[in-house]
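> call design_seq(struct)
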């Protein structure tokens, strides 16, 4: 099965590129930029990745990304991930990035965009890997700040495949960002949002009704609301589920308790993704393998999940046909 899953062409639709920063690269960039890390070694960093919830992860995630300073750093970050993903049979990657987490540290948007753009082109050329870019807003920051970031990104609007919404979910409902997402819609930029990971099913409804998103990131708590499940199924809304992330952030206690089999049973369109592979113990292939081990899914199920990801990706028709 490992061989089959490795060779199955997979698309990753839910990845935070800053969460793909492995401790080895974190240490190399810290040295290059003469930054002091709070860890004595790579092993100590990995040992610190023991989370109790989303916020305890976010604290280390924002601290870890402090080593990213130059366009070259962002290039190296993305290229390091693209190489690993390609090695495990990933043919297309849609990456969220968090401009506010860099702007607040004095890293200008053009630095981030230049680094990520160079890496995307190199991945296409050297690995045959396509990618999409999702500019995410931090929902625990004011909506006005998100709007300023969207306006500041004017030179890059053409390069954005979507805008997204991430960071601490509870207490930060999608409705807070209605104006920002309306502006994105007016600009013709597609929209996605994290909802129903730690937050209630109501946030999923709100993301659909008020933000007009085309995909829900996570969405696993929809099962608490049967009418919502029926709606997601009827409208064919795709959920980008991240099983190892849900275990590590204690959304579920054990992978065996994960709602994925019930979501599948309910007829929802699902994809399997890694979220923050460097922090949650594995990439897309590891997430597929964990599902195989926990749920005993057949090849046909994985073919369907991988197919859904390619259908739901921000891809041109030509590339989509080539991947199907
Ligand atoms: C994130 Cl809400 C969330 N989940 C996982 N990774 C993240 N990075 C930023 N926000
Ligand atoms: Zn996420």
């Amino acid at each position: 099965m490992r061989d089959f899953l490795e060779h199955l062409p997979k698309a990753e639709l839910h990845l935070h590129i800053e969460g793909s920063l492995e401790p080895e690269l974190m240490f190399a960039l810290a040295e290059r930029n003469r930054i002091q890390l709070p860890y004595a070694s790579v092993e100590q960093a990995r040992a610190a990745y023991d989370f109790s919830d989303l916020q305890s992860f976010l604290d280390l995630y924002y601290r870890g990304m402090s080593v990213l300073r130059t366009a070259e750093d962002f290039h190296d970050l993305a290229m390091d991930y693209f190489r690993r993903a390609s090695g495990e049979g990933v043919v297309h990657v849609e990456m969220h990035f968090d401009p506010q987490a860099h702007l607040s540290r004095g890293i200008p948007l053009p630095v981030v965009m230049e680094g990520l753009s160079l890496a995307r082109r190199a991945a296409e050329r050297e690995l045959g890997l396509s990618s999409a870019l999702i500019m995410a807003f931090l929902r625990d920051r004011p909506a006005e700040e998100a709007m300023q970031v969207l306006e500041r990104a004017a030179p890059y609007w053409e390069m954005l495949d979507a805008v997204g919404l991430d960071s601490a979910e509870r207490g930060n409902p999608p409705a807070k960002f209605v104006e920002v997402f309306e502006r994105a819609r007016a600009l013709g930029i597609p929209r996605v949002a994290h909802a129903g990971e730690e937050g209630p099913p109501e946030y999923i409804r709100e993301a659909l009704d008020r933000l007009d998103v085309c995909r829900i990131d996570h969405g696993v708590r929809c099962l608490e609301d049967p009418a919502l499940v029926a709606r997601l199924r009827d409208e064919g809304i795709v959920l980008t589920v991240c099983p190892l992330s849900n275990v590590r952030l204690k959304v579920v206690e054990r992978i065996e308790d994960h709602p994925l089999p019930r979501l599948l049973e309910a007829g929802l369109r699902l994809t399997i993704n890694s979220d923050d592979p460097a922090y949650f113990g594995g990439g897309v292939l590891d997430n597929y393998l964990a599902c195989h081990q926990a749920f005993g899914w057949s090849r046909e199920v994985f073919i369907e999940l991988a197919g859904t990801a390619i259908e739901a990706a921000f891809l041109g028709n030509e590339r989509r046909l080539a991947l199907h």
